[in-house]
Design a protein that fits this description.
Elements (H helix, E strand, L loop, with lengths): L8 H6 L9 E2 L3 E5 L7 E7 L14 H17 L9 E5 L11 E5 L6 H7 L6 E3 H11 L11 H4 L9
Antiparallel strand pairs: 1-2, 2-3, 3-5, 4-5, 4-6
Helix pairs in contact: 2-4
Length: about 160
């Protein structure tokens, strides 16, 4: 059995302790539907090993994140998403992660997501970071810094996000 947190719902799913339908899986990852889809196709790719968030990732996690990305694309292809250039793959940024277990969102078609979904999963959202940006940060800086550039004013005054990445 992989490492886990006893109260983590995604650890229970990865260990087949729920009735969640697993759509794809391998020795490191599982894929299932998002309970609150933000697009016509919305899947979660979750590592079996418990990792809290994308901020917990280090350079040696690059292969895992690349496998997550590949499984997300494979799931979209399997479900006949025609335009693979119109997809969104990424992670919610802490403290906006709904479940504190790393999970990649794979959504399509991105161009047809409603306004609310764009807020949650948009490339310019302060809640979301694309998988490509996480991989770039891991490869160049050895960790996922996640927040770059000016912080939104509503975060600056709350103390929610640390100034130091």
């Amino acid at each position: 059995m992989e490492s886990r947190e006893d109260d983590c719902p995604f650890c229970r799913i990865t260990n087949n302790e729920t009735d969640t339908e697993i759509l794809l899986s391998d020795d490191q990852l599982v894929c299932f539907r998002d309970l609150k889809p933000g697009a016509a196709h919305h899947y979660l790719i979750v590592p079996r090993r418990h990792i809290d968030t994308c901020k917990s990732l280090q350079a040696d996690d690059v292969p895992l994140v690349e496998q997550m990305q590949q499984m997300g694309m494979k799931m979209l292809e399997k479900n006949k998403v025609c335009d693979l250039d119109d997809v969104r793959l990424g992670f919610h940024l802490p403290p906006f992660s709904s479940v504190p277990h790393l999970h990649l969102h794979a959504l399509a078609p991105a161009s047809q997501m409603v306004f609310r979904s764009q807020l949650h999963y948009g490339p310019k959202s302060h809640w979301f970071i694309t998988v490509d940006k996480v991989l770039s940060q891991l490869k160049t800086q050895g960790r996922s810094l996640t927040l770059r550039g000016p912080r939104p004013s509503w975060l600056s005054h709350t103390g929610v996000v640390s100034q130091n990445p």
